Amino acid sequence: MDFPKYLLGDNSDYPTAIFVIHTEFPRFIINLENDEVEWLEDFDAQDQKELENEAENLIQGATEFYDREIALYDED
Fold first, then answer.
1. Which of 6, 13, 54, 59 is deepest in the core (most CB within 10 A)?
2. pLDDT of 76 strictly over 80
3. Helix count (H) and strand count (E) of the chain?
4. How far apart are CA 71 and CA 39, in angstroms?
């Protein structure tokens, strides 16, 4: 099954939180309420260096995805 690169997540146990799930390597969930990131991967030393270089871009991409999705809801 193919998944989109980003998914929105919501949970009634966290009523003010909005989660964006990144489904490609490196997989992570970001809580946009407080910018907390939970990585869903185990990283070796080589992956850690790549992650440090790409983390800002990945998180920015998640934020842009959320902004685009909300703008689409606002158009309706």
1. 6
2. no
3. 1, 4
4. 27
pLDDT in tens, 12-24: 999 999 999 999 9
Give every CB contact of residue 7 below 8 A, 6+ residues apart in sequence.
20, 21, 23
Tokens 């685009």, located at residue: 68
pTM of the model: 0.84
Classify residue 46 as left (phi > 0), alpha (psi -120 to 50) or beta.
Answer: alpha
Residue showing tokens 């309420």:
33
Q: What is the dihedral of CA 43, 20, 72, 2, to 10 degrees?
A: 60
